[in-house]
Amino acid sequence: MSLKTRLISMGTVAVAGFIARHVVEAVWEKGLHQRVPTGDADNDEGISIVQMAAFAAVTAGVTSLVNSIISSKAERWNTKLEA
């Protein structure tokens, strides 16, 4: 695997995490009308462990989906550059 491919792969993972986190936070706050769990005991009073686990699971799922989409687009883009 070339250095360029590795850098593109690292970049897509970082972008996917950033996008997923912001999307989930916006949907969580606007859709459920609840604060986003932060993982800080002082700030998360009143948020149940079930809500925290649900937030983590949803974030992981959305991150995986966004990463898959971005990676396939990056792979197509990289293929076009090499051609």
Q: Could you walk me through the main structural features you see in this protein, from its secondary elements to its overall organization?
A:
This protein is mostly helical and about 80 residues long. The chain is about 75% helix and about 0% strand. The chain contains 2 helices and no strands. The chain starts with a helix and ends with a helix.
Task: Estimate the global geometry from the Cα principal axes.
Answer: elongated
Low-confidence residue ranges: none
Instruction: Please state the average pLDDT score.
Output: 84
Q: Quick one: biggest sheet?
A: none
Series of H and E elements? HH
How many DSSP-defined strands? 0
- The helix tally amounts to 2
Strand content: under 5%
User: Could you tell me the radius of gyration in angstroms?
Assistant: 17 Å
Index terms:
83 residues, 0% strand, 2 helices, mainly alpha
Show the helix and strand layout.
Layout: H1 3-32, H2 49-82
Helix pairs in contact: 1-2
In summary, what is this structure?
Helix content is 77%, strand content 0%. The chain has 83 residues and is an all-alpha fold.
